[in-house]
Design a protein that fits this description.
Elements: E1 14-15, E2 22-23, E3 32-36, E4 39-45, H1 51-58, E5 68-74, H2 78-81, H3 84-96, E6 101-106, H4 109-116, E7 122-124, E8 149-154, E9 172-175, H5 185-194, E10 199-200, H6 201-205, H7 215-222, E11 225-230, H8 239-246, E12 251-254, E13 269-272, H9 276-288, H10 293-323, H11 333-359, H12 361-368
Parallel strand pairs: 4-5, 5-6, 6-7, 8-9, 8-11, 9-10, 11-12, 12-13
Antiparallel strand pairs: 1-2, 3-4
Helix pairs in contact: 1-3, 11-12
Length: 369
Amino acid sequence: MRGPGGDRPVATTLQSAKTGESLTEASLGALQILRTEPLVTLSLIDKSHAGLTEALHSVPAHAEPKKALHLLRSKWNVEKTGAGGLASILAMLRQSAPDHCLLYLAHHDHEASVVARLGIPSITVNDGVFTDTSIWRPMSQSSGGLVHHTAVYNARPERSQRHELAGQIPSLLLIFGGSASADRDDDLERIRSILPQATFANHSIGDGVYKRLEHDVTNRLYNSVSVGLALSDEDGGMPSSNGYLAAGLPIVSTEPMDGRGRYYGFPFVQIVKDDPLAIAAAVNELANRNLDRTRIREAFMQVQDFDRHSVLGALNRAGRALLETETLFNDVTPLVHAMARISKMTDDLVKVQNRIARSDPEASASAKA
C-alpha cells in the first residue's frame, strides 16, 4: 500500500478499538484500503451483494472510524439492467455504516447520472484509468513463434458477448477469461459450433485443457494478431478493449453501449453494425493498413492521462466535500493498484470455482446459489 501521494507506504492493517482485531490486506478480500486516516476503501458491487456489506458485518473494525469514504464500483452495466438492484444494495450499505460516506465510480457519464438520482454521489471513472500500460504494450519480438491470426476476441464465453458476430472472420483467436463458466463444456461447445474456424488460445496453450492465461501470455498473443474485437453490448467497460489499445491493436467494435467507447474516437477504431459480414470487412481493412502500434498506444495513453488527472481532481473534491479533508491523494496510483489486487483476487476465486465445478458440479451449483 502507498500513502496519499503514492510515494510512501501506510499501514495495510485496520485494527478494531473494541476487539483489538487486526486485519491484514490478505484478509480483506475484495475490500481494499486506500488510506487509513481518514479511512478510504475501494470495493466491488455484484448484482446481488457488495463486498463492503460483508466486510462491515463480519469485521466491526471497518465500521468504527468516525470518518470514512467507501468507493464503490459495479461489475455490470447499471444503465442497461436498471438501477433497482443497485438501489437495494446501496440502502443496505447505508444501514451498515450510516455515518460513512459512499462514492460510486461509474463506468460512464450516463451511469453516473442514474446513480446520482438514487441519492449517491457519483463520479465517472472509465476502466481505461485502471489499465496497466506496463503489462499491455507492443513488443519488439512480437509473436515469439506464435501463429499469427487476423483478429482476437478476449471475452467471457457467455451469450451476452455475442461471439457469433465474428463468424465471418476466417483467422480468429479466442481468449476466455473472467468467468467461472470459462471451462464449462456447454459454453465452449456452443462457441465451437458457431465459430468452427477459431483457435481457442486457452486450450491450445493448455494442451487441449482450459488454462487461465497470465497477463504476460495474453499480451504476447495480442502482439501476434492484427485487430482486436469488442462485440458485447452490455459490458461495464470491457477492460480487454483498453488492453488491446495499450498493446497497440486497432479495434473493430459494435456500437458501444458502455464505457469502452470513451477511447474510440480515433481512425484506428471502426464502429460497425451488428453484422458478421460488416465486422469481417472492417477487420480486413484495418489489418491491411499495417498501422503503427506505438502510435495507437500513445493515443490511448494521452486520453488515459487526461482521465486520470480528472479522476484525481474529482476524488480530492469529494474528500473535501464529504470528509472535510484537504487532499486524499496526490496521484491515482493507490486506486489503480487496489483495483489490480481486486482483479487478482477475483481471478483466484474463479480458479477455485472452476476446480469445484470440474470435481463436483452439484456442489458448484449449490455454492453459486
